[in-house]
Amino acid sequence: MRLFPALWALCNILLAQAGRGPQQVTCGSLLKLINVHHKIRLHSHDVKYGSGSGQQSVTGTDQKEDVNSHWAIKGPTARKQCKRGEPVECGQEIRLEHSTTSRNLHSHHFSSPLSNNQEISAFGDGGNGDTGDVWSVVCDGDFWQRDAPIM
């Protein structure tokens, strides 16, 4: 059976999309977060702030290939896990665990040493931390879509 060229092209597009996997960000995913205005990736390594919290510093980098910019999506607490492969909903509470040091992206009321705004650090041991590690995904629609902006 011979397919029309347009239908054949559509089938190839659908097969290509199917091969890319889900278009939604899922629990357990390892990802890089980039500030879309400044093209800077969220970055951390095992270096402590010299002031403020004294916890692991979180900065930004323009380097594309740096393993210290990888973060894993986890449930909001050790007791309330999100199931690996389950799409992350807009409004869902999550933790972002730094893949190299296993510390959580953390917020608290210390001033940042550079901007004097709220300090962001990496905190906890082996992914365990506290309520300052819980983030709410702000996005459009029902689910966090790959390559879509979030807050």
From TrEMBL:
<dbReference type="InterPro" id="IPR036300">
    <property type="entry name" value="MIR_dom_sf"/>
</dbReference>
<protein>
    <recommendedName>
        <fullName>MIR domain-containing protein</fullName>
    </recommendedName>
</protein>
<dbReference type="InterPro" id="IPR016093">
    <property type="entry name" value="MIR_motif"/>
</dbReference>
<feature type="domain" description="MIR">
    <location>
        <begin position="85"/>
        <end position="140"/>
    </location>
</feature>
<feature type="region of interest" description="Disordered">
    <location>
        <begin position="47"/>
        <end position="66"/>
    </location>
</feature>
<feature type="signal peptide">
    <location>
        <begin position="1"/>
        <end position="18"/>
    </location>
</feature>
<keyword id="KW-0677">Repeat</keyword>
<feature type="domain" description="MIR">
    <location>
        <begin position="22"/>
        <end position="76"/>
    </location>
</feature>
<dbReference type="Pfam" id="PF02815">
    <property type="entry name" value="MIR"/>
</dbReference>
<keyword id="KW-0732">Signal</keyword>
